TrEMBL record:
The keyword Coiled coil applies. Signal peptide: none annotated. It comes from Streptomyces griseofuscus. This is MerR family transcriptional regulator. InterPro entries: DNA-bd_dom_put_sf, MerR-type_HTH_dom, MerR_fam, TipA-like_antibiotic-bd, TipAS_dom. The lineage of its organism: Bacteria, Bacillati, Actinomycetota, Actinomycetes, Kitasatosporales.
Length: 253
C-alpha cells in the first residue's frame, strides 16, 4: 500500500505542502494512488526524496536537482560518490567557518576587537590568539593576566599598530646586535633587554625583574618561542635569554 503523504512528511521532516509541490513540478511523483486518489509513496520514492533533500541541503536549486537525479547515464554508485565528495567539501567549509568564529570569539575575549581586514593590517600572517588558550591556562589566575586583558580591551586599531611597530623596530635592532656579535652581557644588549621589559610594562602588565627572568627562561625552554626568535637570527633566543638575566642581575646589584 505504500506510505501516505503525511507519513512521508513525518519521516523526512518536511511539510505536506513541500511534497505536493515536488509532485506538481514532476520532481517527486508518488508511485501509487489509492482508489480515492490519495498519494501513496513507495520505498523507491523515499529513496529519491532522500537524495532530493540531500542536494537541497547543499544549496542546489530544484531544477538542477531534477537534472542530477534524472540523468539516464548516472548510476547509484556515481550518486554516492558525488554525495561523498560534496559532503566532504561541505564539512571542510564548515570546519573553516567554525575556526573563524572561534578565533573571532577568542579575539573579542582578549580585547582584540578588530575586523578581519584590520587584523591582517596590524598582525599580517601572525595570529595574536595562537597561544591564547594555553596562556590563560598558565597565567589566567594572575594579576598580570587580568591587567593585560583589561588593557587590551581598550586598544584601538591604531594602538595595536603602534604596538606592532614597536615590536618590529626592537626586533630589527636586536637582530642587528646579535649579527654584529655583541655580547649578551654587554651594555648594548642589556639596554635592549631593559627596553623589552619596559615594552611589556607599557602595553600589557607591570613586569618586574623576577618576572622578566621567568619570561627569559620560557624563551629558551619552549620550542615555539625559541623557534620564533631564532627565525630572526640563529642564536637570537639564547642571546636574549642571557641579556635579560644580565640586565636583571645588574639591577639587583
Amino acid at each position: 500500500m505504500g506510505y501516505s503523504v503525511g507519513q512521508v512528511a513525518g519521516f523526512a521532516g518536511v511539510t505536506v505542502r513541500t511534497l505536493h509541490h515536488y509532485d506538481e513540478i514532476g520532481l517527486l511523483a508518488p508511485g501509487g494512488r489509492t482508489h480515492a486518489g490519495h498519494r501513496r509513496y513507495t520505498d523507491a520514492d523515499l529513496d529519491r526524496l532522500q537524495r532530493i533533500l540531500f542536494y537541497r541541503e547543499l544549496g542546489f536549486p530544484l531544477d538542477e536537482v531534477a537534472v542530477l537525479l534524472d540523468d539516464p547515464d548516472a548510476d547509484p554508485r556515481a550518486h554516492l560518490r558525488r554525495q561523498h565528495a560534496l559532503l566532504t567539501a561541505r564539512i571542510e567549509k564548515l570546519r573553516r567557518m567554525a575556526e573563524a568564529v572561534e578565533h573571532a570569539m577568542e579575539a573579542r575575549r582578549m580585547g582584540i576587537d578588530l575586523t578581519p581586514e584590520e587584523r591582517f593590517e596590524v598582525f599580517g600572517d601572525k595570529d595574536p590568539e595562537q597561544y591564547a588558550e594555553e596562556a590563560e591556562a598558565r597565567w589566567g589566575g594572575t594579576t598580570q593576566w587580568a591587567e593585560s586583558q583589561r588593557r587590551a580591551a581598550t586598544y584601538s586599531k591604531e594602538d595595536w599598530k603602534r604596538l606592532r611597530a614597536e615590536v618590529d623596530d626592537w626586533s630589527e635592532r636586536y637582530t642587528r646586535l646579535v649579527a654584529a656579535g655583541e655580547p649578551a652581557t654587554g651594555e648594548a644588549a642589556r639596554a635592549m633587554a631593559e627596553e623589552h621589559r619596559q615594552h611589556i610594562g607599557r602595553w600589557f602588565y607591570d613586569c618586574p625583574y623576577p618576572m622578566h627572568r621567568c619570561l627569559a627562561e620560557m624563551y629558551v625552554a619552549d620550542e615555539r618561542f625559541k623557534a620564533y626568535y631564532d627565525a630572526m637570527h640563529p642564536g637570537f633566543a639564547e642571546h636574549l635569554h642571557a641579556a635579560i638575566l644580565a640586565n636583571a642581575d645588574r639591577q639587583a646589584s
